[in-house]
């Protein structure tokens, strides 16, 4: 079956479904819906239908009033409450003409089912495709039940519906409907039904059993009296019907009683994207001015056609198909509220967006798959139909209460209701806030600024006397006669004390700070000179303290690319959970994480990205929302969220705008400093201001001193100086208060990982004393630069194994806990825990000592003073037995005497020797009274000199050893005697006297025989050393003669000769030569001692003369291995040879075996007959056939 148009395609699907038995139809319906969705994308029309709401409320009856609910009328203690007879969507508070606070309504994050959700079906409590819906003044819902070809009415709170139109099967009769897609109810209760597949609009009077056609003629077409796949329906108060004629790309207006319609938007049959064209329009809405709003589906935009206009203007979308806040994706329904805000059923993105009048982007007010929607103009609730149910998305009204905190004045509230009605309250005059102060003189605390006072001690009156033993915070509440009140606090710092141990002597005495407070820093002074500083330590606590898995997630304990961290005075941790659009919090000591605020709920915009986060003493939390270019102030536990800097969704460079704000800092007065990233500046917004002033940068992107290039964070110290993380310049800039340019205090040496470099720093925290902590993002490390330093040290870094850090982006130094780091790449926060500084100090110089202690609550106090005395001044010398000063032990002087003295004099001095090291090793004896000791080992010796007052000092002396063995060597260390050189000269080198093994005493001797010669040297200290040298003589080489080496069978005998050649030209010593012959397994050897000649097997010059009589067999091993030695008196002359004859017999060697017959000259260790060991072995391969 072929279909010429999308209408015919879907109509064919409807008829195909009719032919399927009901029991088999459910899965087919699901598949059809999938096909319809595909048709939406491919063919250009939509069945995820829209929209609509009842008529607007009459604004003339809007009643509001402003009252003061507090006894006083001062800012800071007065709460103003507005009353309204309509539900407020927006409350704007003004001090005179200045907007100071805005409260907005908040959309629900989930919907509740109010109709259906009982699976697809035809029962009264079921739908078979809930499409168009309408909400009347009683809260009753009318639903176009498309698949059941009926309209159902569900009374408010009902669990089932009643049929008010159709319900008589699919058809085109007056009492039938064919896939109704939308519904409208007029003031009389008549129901208008968009009878989609019958190409008509039917009006069913109250209680009627059939309808009458008020638009279309029942057949699809392009004529003025026809409709083609109509989707959108609107009926005005006079009964005029507006229809979105989808396939004809036009909006048709049908006057009451008319038999044809007129085109009021689009061009009949012509689809396109020009201003006068539409492309498969869906929803339609007409406002009070007669302007027609059209959901231009395939153009992904909402077009507004003024009454009588020939073209439209885009009021939402129009930026291409997409999911960004300024885009739409196949929009279906459209609704416009009384304030001109446009609601869009953004079907392709499964969301409903709200575009404020004139906005260039929308915010999400409901999510999920939405076929159609209707907005309750009185409460702001949104009803959406999807699949087989209707869900209600409730809206929390804007708060009507406000407490001015910063200034008095004439206050009014401008209230806008959900239906667009706006009115301004009466005015109330509020006085400036009280300024309560506390002064302290000699333990008397005095309050001023009010009439009566209540102290935290329970006392009343202007003055109280206190004498705390530990640092204590006192607070007072002051009240005026008019009932205004304010509080103030005063920290009474109690100085710690110094205790001493081990006396009062330098080198012995240990000073300790005693305090019950948490101490951050101790500075020790000797008089007015700083002698030593002990600061807190930072220790990495392995693993995440926030973001339990270390991976992105949406759970309460997970983070998703966090960007900022802040810790308040109660140790509650706040994290800007960027990609989860929320701020997470966890109280001190708790394992439970909760959401302080969800920016999606606040702005109903999924593009919201919390980036920087900070707080102040008021308990407010401030968050920069980089994508929406604003800074939010969060109070009342997250129930109050207001914009205090920038304009939501309106990025720019004007004084009242921000562009991609990042890090921020907030002082206790509520002044906000913002790193305005894309504007390359730091903006300062005073509390309540409507615009900011540039206090750093703002001179374009650059690296000059008055420029910034992508600032990511800012910190303001107690002097008002700003420290800016200048990311793209890879530096930290310090801008003094009021300065027009900054100075580089860290980095600025190009991108890199050297100690003096940074790479894309993102976070900074500064302290005038401690220095600067930097989140060096590109280097995955935290750097610490002390004041004035030219390079930094690494506090924490990724070691590329344990992945400690991955792109850290922010940090916060908490006075009590330590350094919190946002480990963004690992989606977690880690902690370098703060450890207390050492409270103990051991001075090395005499003087009067005090400690300047920086403790909690900002207390900086000076301790009592302690006087320390000077230690003894020891001297230590060494002498030998002759009283000569020397520190060297010799063989003649094997012990020395150490003598210690105290140059400062005084009686009763004691001396205690030790050494070497900490033992008494090497000390023969010592006298602790006269300060002497006898030592006999080399090493370091110490003496502790203690005077009568108990002060002591230690000095040392190093005793060296002269007992070392003298250096001795012989040159050459080895020699060879030859015919040409029959004499060897050996020369000994060293200092002292020589004695050779020959009895000679000269350094050089000459020898004519081979052997090993030794010499002993006696050095000047009497110590001796010995060494030796070898002299080699003859050199024997050998060969085995056995030409015929094949043995045919067992018993075969072979005869062979071994020739020993002296090749060095010198004769061997008499009777020294020893040789060994080894036959393989299966063979035996024989040595005929008396043999004088022999016939060599296979030899060509037999017989051969042999010298067997000069040799003797000294060992035989199984007749396989024979050892021979030359007889006494026999030798081999220089250049001569000795021949020895042998017999070899095959016994049981395997046939085909191959093995070696070997002969070797025994190693001559004394070198009397052979000085070369390299040619002493010869082997001959023999075979068994």
Account of the protein in words:
With 1185 residues, the protein is mainly beta. The protein folds into eight domains: 65-105 and 398-430, Immunoglobulins (Immunoglobulin-like, Sandwich); 112-396, TolB, C-terminal domain (Neuraminidase, 6 Propeller); 438-492, no CATH class; 497-536 and 842-868, no CATH class; 539-664 and 749-835, Thrombin, subunit H (Beta Barrel); 874-961, Immunoglobulin-like, CATH 2.60.40.10; 969-1031, no CATH class; 1041-1183, Sandwich (Immunoglobulin-like), CATH 2.60.40. It contains three helices and 99 strands. The strands form 26 sheets. It has a six-stranded mixed β-sheet, with no helix packed on it. Strands 3, 4, 32, 33 and 34 form a five-stranded antiparallel β-sheet that branches. Strand 67 (818-823) and strand 68 form a beta hairpin. The chain is flat.
Query: Unreliable runs, pLDDT <50, ≥5 residues?
Result: 1-57
Number of strands: 99
How would you write the strand order of the largest sheet? 89-99-98-91-96-95
Strand content: over 45%
CATH architecture of the largest domain: 6 Propeller
- The protein's oligomeric status is single chain
Q: Quick one: CATH superfamily of the largest domain?
A: TolB, C-terminal domain
CATH class category label of the largest domain: Mainly Beta
Structural class computed from helices and strand pairing: mainly beta
Instruction: Report on the biggest sheet.
Output: 6 strands, mixed
Level of helix content? under 10%
Number of DSSP helical runs: 3
Mean pLDDT, to the nearest integer, reads 86
Question: What is the CATH topology descriptor of the largest domain?
Answer: Neuraminidase
Shape: flat
Radius of gyration: 53 Å
Number of domains: 8
What is the end-to-end distance? 97 Å
């Amino acid at each position: 079956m072929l279909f010429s148009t999308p209408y015919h395609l879907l109509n064919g699907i409807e008829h195909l479904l009719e032919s399927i038995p009901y029991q088999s139809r459910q899965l087919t319906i699901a598949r059809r819906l999938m096909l319809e969705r595909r048709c939406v994308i491919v063919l250009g029309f939509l069945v995820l239908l829209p929209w609509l709401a009842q008529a607007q409320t009459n604004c003339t009856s809007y009643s509001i009033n402003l009252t003061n609910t507090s006894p006083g009328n001062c800012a800071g203690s007065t709460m103003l409450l507005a009353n309204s007879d309509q539900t407020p969507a927006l409350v704007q508070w003004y001090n005179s003409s200045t907007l100071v606070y805005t409260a907005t309504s908040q959309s629900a994050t989930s919907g509740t089912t109010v109709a259906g959700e009982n699976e697809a079906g035809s029962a009264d409590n079921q739908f078979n495709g809930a499409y168009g819906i309408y909400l009347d003044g009683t809260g009753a819902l009318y639903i176009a039940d498309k698949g059941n070809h009926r309209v159902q009415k569900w009374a408010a709170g009902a669990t089932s519906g009643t049929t008010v139109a159709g319900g008589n099967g699919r058809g085109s009769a007056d009492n039938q409907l064919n896939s109704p897609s939308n519904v409208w109810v007029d003031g009389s209760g008549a129901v208008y039904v968009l009878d989609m597949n019958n190409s008509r609009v039917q009006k069913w009077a109250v209680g009627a059993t059939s309808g009458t056609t008020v638009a279309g003629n029942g057949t699809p077409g392009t004529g003025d009296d026809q409709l083609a796949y109509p989707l959108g329906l609107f009926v005005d108060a006079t009964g005029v019907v507006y229809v979105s004629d989808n396939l004809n790309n036009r909006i048709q207006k049908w006057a009451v009683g008319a038999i044809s319609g007129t085109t009021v938007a689009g061009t009949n049959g012509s689809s396109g994207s020009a201003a006068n064209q539409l492309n498969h329009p869906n929803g339609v809405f007409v406002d009070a001015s007669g302007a027609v709003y059209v959901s231009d589906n395939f153009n992904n935009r909402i077009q507004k056609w003024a009454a009588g206009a020939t073209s439209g203007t885009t009021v939402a979308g129009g930026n291409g198909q997409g999911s960004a806040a300024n885009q739409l994706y196949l929009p279906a329904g459209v609704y416009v509220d009384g304030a001109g805000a446009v609601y869009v059923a953004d079907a392709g993105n499964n969301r409903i967006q709200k575009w404020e009048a004139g906005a260039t982007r929308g915010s999400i007010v409901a999510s999920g798959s939405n076929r159609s929607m209707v907005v309750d103009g009185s409460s702001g609730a949104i009803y959406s139909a999807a699949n087989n149910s209707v869900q209600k998305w409730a809206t929390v009204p804007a708060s009507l209460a406000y407490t001015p905190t910063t200034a008095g004045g004439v206050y009014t509230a401008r209230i806008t209701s959900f239906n667009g009605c706006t009115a301004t309250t009466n005015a109330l005059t509020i006085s400036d806030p009280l300024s309560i102060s506390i002064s302290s003189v000699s333990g008397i605390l005095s309050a001023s600024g009010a009439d009566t006072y209540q102290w935290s001690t329970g006392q009343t009156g202007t003055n109280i006397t206190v004498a705390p033993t530990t640092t204590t915070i006192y607070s007072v509440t002051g009240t005026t006669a008019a009932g205004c009140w304010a509080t103030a606090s005063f920290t009474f710092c109690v100085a710690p004390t110094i205790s001493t141990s081990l006396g009062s002597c330098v080198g012995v005495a240990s000073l300790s700070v005693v305090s019950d407070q948490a101490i951050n820093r101790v500075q020790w002074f000797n008089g007015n000179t700083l002698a030593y500083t002990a600061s807190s330590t930072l220790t990495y606590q392995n693993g995440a303290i926030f973001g339990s898995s270390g991976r992105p997630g949406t759970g309460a304990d997970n983070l998703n690319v966090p960007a900022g961290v802040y810790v308040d005075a109660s140790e509650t941790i706040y994290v800007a959970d960027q990609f989860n659009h929320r701020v997470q919090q966890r109280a001190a000591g708790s394992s439970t994480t909760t959401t302080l605020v969800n920016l999606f709920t606040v702005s109903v915009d999924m593009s919201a990205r919390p980036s920087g986060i900070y707080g102040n003493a008021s308990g407010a939390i401030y968050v920069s929302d980089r994508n929406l270019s604003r800074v939010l102030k969060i109070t009342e536990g997250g129930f109050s969220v207001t914009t205090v800097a920038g304009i939501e969704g309106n990025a720019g460079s004007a004084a009242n705008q921000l562009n991609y704000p990042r890090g921020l800092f907030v002082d206790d007065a509520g002044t906000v400093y913002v790193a305005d990233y894309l504007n390359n500046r730091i903006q300062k917004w005073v509390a309540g201001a409507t615009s900011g002033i540039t206090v750093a940068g703002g001179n374009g992107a650059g690296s000059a001193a008055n420029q910034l290039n992508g600032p990511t964070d800012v910190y303001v110290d107690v002097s008002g100086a700003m420290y800016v993380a200048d990311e793209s310049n890879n530096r930290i800039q310090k801008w003094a208060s009021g300065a027009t340019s900054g100075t580089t205090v860290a980095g600025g040496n190009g991108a890199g990982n050297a100690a003096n470099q940074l790479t894309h720093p993102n976070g900074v925290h500064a302290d005038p004393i401690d220095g600067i902590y930097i989140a060096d993002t590109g280097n995955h490390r935290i750097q610490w630069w002390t004041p004035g330093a030219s390079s930094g040290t690494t506090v924490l870094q990724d070691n590329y194994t344990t992945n400690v850090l991955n792109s850290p982006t922010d940090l916060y130094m908490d006075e009590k806990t330590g350094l919190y780091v946002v480990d963004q790449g690992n989606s977690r926060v880690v902690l370098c825990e703060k450890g207390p500084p050492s409270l103990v100090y051991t001075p090395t110089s005499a003087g009067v000592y005090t400690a300047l202690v920086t403790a909690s609550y900002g207390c900086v106090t000076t301790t009592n003073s302690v006087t320390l005395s000077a230690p003894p001044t020891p001297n230590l010398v060494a002498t030998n037995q002759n009283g000569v000063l020397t520190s060297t032990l010799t063989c003649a002087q094997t012990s020395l005497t150490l003598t210690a003295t105290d140059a400062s004099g005084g009686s009763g001095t004691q001396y205690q020797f030790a050494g070497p090291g900490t033992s008494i090793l090497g000390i023969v004896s010592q006298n602790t009274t006269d300060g002497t000791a006898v030592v006999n080992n080399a090493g370091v010796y110490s003496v502790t000199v203690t005077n009568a007052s108990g002060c002591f000092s230690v000095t040392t002396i190093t005793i060296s050893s002269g007992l070392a063995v003298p250096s001795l060597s012989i040159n050459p260390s080895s020699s060879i005697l030859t015919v040409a050189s029959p004499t060897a000269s050996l020369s000994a080198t060293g200092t002292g006297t020589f004695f050779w093994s020959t009895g000679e005493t000269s350094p050089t001797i000459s020898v004519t025989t081979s052997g090993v010669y030794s010499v002993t040297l006696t050095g000047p200290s009497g110590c001796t050393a010995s060494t030796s040298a070898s002299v080699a003589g003859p050199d024997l080489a050998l060969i085995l003669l056995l030409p015929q080496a094949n043995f045919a069978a067992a018993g075969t005998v072979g005869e062979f000769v071994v020739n020993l050649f002296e090749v060095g030209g010198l004769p061997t010593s008499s009777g020294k030569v020893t040789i060994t012959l080894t036959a393989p397994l299966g063979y035996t050897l024989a040595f005929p001692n008396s043999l004088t000649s022999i016939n060599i097997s296979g030899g060509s010059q037999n017989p051969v003369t042999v010298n067997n009589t000069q040799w003797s067999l000294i060992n035989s091993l199984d007749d396989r291995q024979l050892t021979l030695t030359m007889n006494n008196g026999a030798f081999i002359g220089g250049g001569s040879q000795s021949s020895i004859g042998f017999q070899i017999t095959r016994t049981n060697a395997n046939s085909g075996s191959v093995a070696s017959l070997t002969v070797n000259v025994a190693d001559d260790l004394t070198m009397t007959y052979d000085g070369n060991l390299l040619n002493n072995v010869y082997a001959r391969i023999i075979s068994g056939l």
